[in-house]
Amino acid sequence: CCIMMLPQSMSGQTVGILGLGVSGMAAARALAGVGVHLWLHDDSWSETGAPAEIDVPTAAQIAAWQDWPWASLDAMVISPGIPHHLPAPHGAAARAAEAGIPVISEVEIALRARPSARLIVITGTNGKSTTTALLGHCLANAGIPVAVGGNIGDAACNLDDPGPDGVIVLEMSSYQLETTPSLTPDIAVLLNITPDHLDRHGGLDGYVAAKARAVTALPAHGLAVIGSGDEHVVKLADDLRDGAAALLVISPEMAPAAVRDCAALAGDHNAENAAAVAACLQHLGCSDDAIAVGVSSFAGLAHRLQPVANTSHLQFVNDSKATNGVAAARALAAFDNIYWIAGGQAKDDGLGAALDATDKVRRAYLIGASAPAFAAALDGRCDVTMCGDLNTATYTAFADASADTGSASVDSATILLSPAAASFDQFADFAARGNAFAELARRLAAPAAAPKVSPKVRGGAHA
Predict the structure, then answer these.
(1) Least CB-packed of 32, 343, 348, 351 within 10 Å?
(2) Is the N-terminal amide bond of 195 cis, ω within 30° of 0?
(3) Do residues 120 and 169 touch, judged by C-beta distance below 8 A?
(4) pLDDT, position 450
(5) pLDDT-derived band of residue 449, with 50, 70 and 90 as boundaries?
(6) Hey, which residues does 326 pair with through a beta bridge?
(7) At 168, phi and psi to the nearest 5?
(8) What is the pTM assigned to this prediction?
(9) Which residues contact 231 (CB under 8 A, 6 or more apart)?
(10) Which of 186, 177, 178 is nearest to 219 (CA)?
(11) What is residue 25's predicted lDDT score, i.e. its pLDDT?
């Protein structure tokens, strides 16, 4: 039987919560459940109270953070999207630092409940949401009680403890890892590290150190599962070889054969994700047959190499979560005859690694603010059509691909949305962009058979 996680050791304390989205409100409910005196603030709320749809614990006080009882605060819970240190701390975080008040994450609150289930933490710049969801799917399929959350799906405090025979699987971002001092996972998975969110960590060294927290927090009986695709994880693996915890370095070649039967796990990067999952499952005692069944039946996550529609010769793949060049490069390596839709609000390195992954791109269709810069970068590498917006790009790609496919030279093709850029110039977020593409794809592919329904769980927002 699952038991709600409540941090009994914090009963009677006084805690401020800064940021009252999903994670902040989850922390508030868990703390209210053990009699913590709560002070709440969100920069988007008025001082008169919370929005009507927010269910605030009755004993909590909503107030400007300046009016909190700083002299008696035991801790401050901060939402992951709010800077607690760099590039400049939020005023409340600065005040907490001055007063020596611990600034902690919502995940820290869940761990202070001391769940009896085994804990697996998964992180990495790319692939952590797919890996987390795949592991949760395989555990459930094997009949092992499991709760999945953190930076994906539900907040950690909203999960029930599956008990000593169960497993909690948490995806954790670099922000969460920095503010969770009680972290002691049984298994830590660190897939890869490529530059991202560097302003929040004072540069690459700070980002690497934050990610490394997942494995350096392992106890003596723990297992570190580390990828092998970049210099940062390779160095971390070398540093860990003489440590107390066990170490397993994984690569795409170590993936279970069943990965070939799963359309949602296309590409070498997903093979490595599957290898990491298989390593965790084997460590937990799952049989090879159970692993194969779980991997082959995985439906995938929305907006990550997600097949959304198809015709007899074309498939539409929604990879809207690929908001940087490394993620887009992995998608470009996963298919042949690609009609590539890219662009948006570019990251600092522009197309980055995607520039060296265009061999199978027949034409790129560029959208958004980055379109001129992307076109210049792709000059001489692949044909480019400037489209401006997603609607034009999708229709143009479909017309071109339809004219080319079905011939002896091009039997089939993929229309791939893998933007290598953020969405905020034209969409609210990557999910809105992906949903718009999926709707266009289904309209263009009709009356072809409807695609598989994607799982409801949505992947993480932070790296």
Answers:
(1) 348
(2) no
(3) yes
(4) 45
(5) very low
(6) none
(7) -105, 125
(8) 0.85
(9) none
(10) 186
(11) 93
> What is the pLDDT, as a whole number, of residue 453?
41
Query: Two tokens at 187?
Result: 């298994």
For the segment 269-308, what is each residue's pLDDT rounded down to a tens digit? 999 999 999 999 999 999 999 999 999 999 889 999 999 9
Among 461, 367, 378, which Cα is nearest to 419's? 367
What is the side-by-side order of every strand in the sheet holding 246-249?
146-150, 167-171, 118-123, 187-190, 223-226, 246-249
Report yes or no: 18 and 83 within 8 Å, Cβ to Cβ: no
pLDDT digits (tens, 9 = 90+) for 340-377: 999 999 988 899 999 999 999 999 999 999 999 999 99
| Torsion on CA atoms 266, 340, 320, 445, rounded to nearest 10 | -80
Chain length of the chain:
463
For the ranges 14-28, 42-56, 131-145, the lowest mean pLDDT is seen at 42-56
Query: What DSSP string describes 51-63?
Result: -TT----TT-EE-
Contact in structure between 28 and 57 (CB atoms under 8 Å)? yes
For residues 160 and 2, is the Cβ–Cβ distance under 8 A? Answer: yes
- Quickly list H helices, 405-445: 430-445
Report phi then psi at 433, rounded to 5: -65, -45
Q: Are 428 and 272 in contact (CB under 8 A)?
A: no
C-alpha span between 423 and 433 (Å, rounded): 7
Q: Is 383 left (phi over 0), alpha (psi -120 to 50) or beta?
A: beta
Helix, strand or coil, per DSSP, at residue 358: coil
CA separation for the pair 332, 86 (Å, rounded): 34
Mean pLDDT of 11-20: 96
pLDDT exceeds 50 at position 207: yes
The whole-angstrom separation of Cα 366 and Cα 387 is: 6
Beta bridge partners of 84: none
Distance CA 97, CA 130 (A): 35
Where helices occur in 217-322 by DSSP H, the ranges are 231-240, 268-283, 288-296
CA 238/CA 226 separation, integer angstroms: 10
Which residues neighbour 96 within 8 Å (Cβ) at sequence distance 6 or greater? 16, 73, 76, 102, 103
Alpha-carbon distance of 331 to 344, in angstroms, equals: 17
Q: Is the pLDDT of residue 181 over 90?
A: yes
Written as six digits, the tokens of 431 are: 């999910």
Contact 310, 316 (CB under 8 A): yes
CA–CA gap between residue 237 and residue 240 (Å, rounded): 5
Let me know: does 38 contact 17? Beta carbons within 8 Å. yes
